[in-house]
Amino acid sequence: MKTRRFLHKLVPDTYIALVMLFLYLPIIVLIVYSFNSVSKSFIWGEFTLDHYKNLFNGSDGSELFDALITTLRIAAIASVASTFIAVVSCLGMQYLNKKLQSALMSLTYIPNVMPELVTGISFMLLFAFLGLQKGQITLILSHIAFCIPYAVLSISPKLKQLDKNLAEAAMDLGATEWQTLRLVIIPEIMPGILSSILLTFTMSVDDYLVSNFNADSTIQTLPMKIYAMAKFGVNPKMNALTTLMFVVILVLLILSNVSGAKGKKSKKNG
Predict the structure, then answer these.
(1) How far is residue 78's CA from residue 83's CA, in Å, rounded to a whole number?
(2) pTM score > 0.70 for this model?
(3) At a CB cut-off of 8 Å and minimum separation 6, what does 82 contact?
(4) How confident is the model at residue 104 (pLDDT cuts 50, 70, 90)?
(5) For residue 270, pLDDT beyond 60
(6) What is the pLDDT of residue 73?
(7) Stretch among 90-94, 167-171, 264-268 having the lowest mean pLDDT
(8) In this predicted model, what pLDDT tens digit does every residue of 210-230 receive, in sequence order?
(9) How far is the C-alpha of 64 from the C-alpha of 220, rounded, in Å?
(10) Which residues contact 253 (CB under 8 A, 6 or more apart)?
(11) Is residue 191 a contact partner of residue 260, using CB atoms and an 8 Å limit?
């Protein structure tokens, strides 16, 4: 019996450990070699911070910095715009009958499982049909449309959990529709809105295919720049930059989880 219990405990723990190792070992290697003084990734020299100090120096560095600023700007616009559209869409769908609401949600979920290659090409053909030249506008529009399904996926569950009596009670107490939306509904679904902004921002920063098909040669996002640099071998600045991006995303996730936990705790205490 003791042996069986030990095996029942050991097998799941070993499986989880192997999965975590498979997922995070490449990231650990990336972080470690971002401090390597030797340019070749398979040779270890000594610990150095030079790659971080010189990250945005030189021709490669200035191009990386420009690509980073472009990527952050587009991601910020796409995340805010797609979240706003998703909030309006989800609020509107709440007043539809269940069959139509279910059909619209199914149509919204389709882009989530569609390959990015199809999405990128379809937007490229659409802009060509409309006569729009590739540039920053087409890039932003494609990113907004690409992010909307993920925003709906984040916000819709929060609206379904919302007690409809809250809005009716607020209006019975004299609140206008705008006050009810601003002071009752939005605060209740705020965790979904924040998770939507974080998710869509991350998806936009990470995107390569949609950007590649809908941007001209004058615009380069960070993934496009990194892919171009990777063709000529491993660049230590790539390791340093991606490490910084990983740390920033990790911090944002931790802050999001902490704020969510504090919100649940305050609701229970209240």
Answers:
(1) 8
(2) yes
(3) 144, 145, 147, 148, 150, 151, 196, 200
(4) confident
(5) no
(6) 94
(7) 264-268
(8) 998 998 888 888 888 888 877
(9) 9
(10) 198
(11) yes
Reading the block at residue 209, the tokens are 């295919």
CA distance 236 to 129: 42
Q: How far apart are CA 160 and CA 147, in angstroms?
A: 21
11 or 202, higher pLDDT: 202
| One-character DSSP codes across the chain | -HHHHHHHHHHHHHHHHHHHHHHHHHHHHHHHHTTBSSSSTTS---B--HHHHTTT-HHHHHHHHHHHHHHHHHHHHHHHHHHHHHHHHHHHHTTS-HHHHHHHHHHHHHHHHS-HHHHHHHHHHHHHHHTPPSSHHHHHHHHHHHHHHHHHHHHHHHHHHS-HHHHHHHHHTT--HHHHIIIIIHHHTHHHHHHHHHHHHHHHHH--HHHHHH--TT---HHHHHHHHHTT---HHHHHHHHHHHHHHHHHHHHHHHHHHHHHHHHHH-
